[in-house]
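Hey, I'm writing a tutorial for new members on how sequence and structure tokens pair up, and I'd like a real worked example in the thread rather than a made-up one. If someone can provide the structure for the chain below, I'll link this post from the tutorial.
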Amino acid sequence: MSGVQIVAGFALRESVRRRVFVVVALLTVAFLGLYGLGVWRVSREVTEFGDFESGVDPDTVAGATLLGLSMFATLFLGAILAVFLTLNAVRGDAERGLLQPLVVRPLSRATFLLGRYAAAAGVCMAYTVLVFLASVVITNLFIDWWPDRLLVPAFQMAIAVAILAALALGGSVLLSSTANGIAIFMLFGAGLTAGLLGQIGEALSSDTLQDVSQITSWILPFEAHYQNALSEITADTFGFNRYAINLGPFGGAQAFGALLWPYTALYLGAIAFVALWAFRRRDL
């Protein structure tokens, strides 16, 4: 077994011991239950509208809007999981004397960071994909609508939380646990705020707001992947349906193109480089 696998296994066993996954599972069941209740209630209202009034399909608009809402909640839950799996991975454990026995020969500090990231990112990505797919199924159970794309938005949501996990793990090298948690949640809020500003800018035809949103989304690419995922669920929807979806808070997402993928790889590489450089300079 390689050093990365050993560290990843240790991190997962530690999370099980602290009952992190039990809390996450309970919160997820509660979220999906509330989401199902909301979709059921909306489906009854949609039925009263009838079909294709004013050229708009109520099922498409309601389904896309509700799934967009669930994607926002899924990203938030994934971000919480990413933060709490990496919150005290380096500095917090070092201050409590838990890190020093691990970072000894032949286990290098690079191996330790990679193992912790593999555990956190793997769990968060799998969790996000499962919750997204569960939300899709719940939506279809009550509203006769499927998203235009399924796998691409699921994967992009997973990449978004993997970026958040990388930022949180990198922050754990430099910041205390509390400061790191606050910093990551503020970055998360900044990214989502930028997305909302972009939608407001599009509605008001404000180039300034749209430029601010675009630049911020590139600086915080988890937001760009989230918006891409939102865009993909209605990729083949046009006409009045598309216009009605864009009026909602979760339908006006932007596509960022193929350049986002190599940029994300470079972004994660840069975080890894800075985190490892700071970790090697740290006196444990």
